[in-house]
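hiii so um. not sure if this is the right channel but i have a protein structure encoded as tokens and i wanna go backwards to a sequence. like what aa goes where. can anyone help
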């Protein structure tokens, strides 16, 4: 019989990133497994690449289930935020460049983790899931808990890759007046923004009900990139 024992040291403040693949359920339902598995394998490969991007092991934990991928830290130090933010954002960027639509969020807060048993419980997960799922776009944002935690250190509005979004048609029912989100503004290729090219290509292939997600992402990109 499986028995779960509570270990207090596992429940602590952490940085937590949640990302999910958009349209993956429909892909599973409508395509053959031969078409689904390469997409999933590519996502796993890109997550591992992001978590080990140009550095030694920094104690990040990652896991996945179906269309959901998570990356989190062992503590809530500023150093750990830098590691989680970098890995999660790079993962997001790599998937977009591979034309795999994804949406995500980083939060800060309590998380109980037993990674070997795939047990993840706590406010950090709930908040990241809430904001990761709420927004009508293809994008990557920082939850209000991150803005609050960093306000006396290096405020999110001073971070190079993040800009404020307060458009209710994007935020929808998200319980915040605004969020700071990755602005697709960290480089060009041959004078062109590579994310715009990727988003436009995905928009052309998207079902009608998903087109607004790309329109909103492209509008945000055009405003700040």
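sure thing!! here u go:
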């Amino acid at each position: 019989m499986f028995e779960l024992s509570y270990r207090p040291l596992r429940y602590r403040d952490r940085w937590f990133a949640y990302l999910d693949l958009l349209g993956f359920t429909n892909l599973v339902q409508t395509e053959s497994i031969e078409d689904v598995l390469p997409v999933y394998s590519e996502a796993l490969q890109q997550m591992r690449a992001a978590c080990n991007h140009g550095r030694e092991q920094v104690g990040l934990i990652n896991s996945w289930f179906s269309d959901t991928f998570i990356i989190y830290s062992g503590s809530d130090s500023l150093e750990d935020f830098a590691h989680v933010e970098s890995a999660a954002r790079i993962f997001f960027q790599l998937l977009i460049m591979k034309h795999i639509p994804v949406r995500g969020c980083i939060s800060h807060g309590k998380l109980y983790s037993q990674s070997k048993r795939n047990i993840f419980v706590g406010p950090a997960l709930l908040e990241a899931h809430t904001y990761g799922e709420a927004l009508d776009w293809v994008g990557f944002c920082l939850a209000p808990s991150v803005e609050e935690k960093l306000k006396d250190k290096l405020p999110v509005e001073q971070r190079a890759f993040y800009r404020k979004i307060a458009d209710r048609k994007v935020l929808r029912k998200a319980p915040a007046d605004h969020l700071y989100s990755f602005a697709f503004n960290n480089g060009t290729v041959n004078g062109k923004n590579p994310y715009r090219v990727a988003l436009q290509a995905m928009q052309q292939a998207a079902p009608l009900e998903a087109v607004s997600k790309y329109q909103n992402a492209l509008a945000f990109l055009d405003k700040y990139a």
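oh and The CA atoms of residues 19 and 69 lie 5 Å apart.
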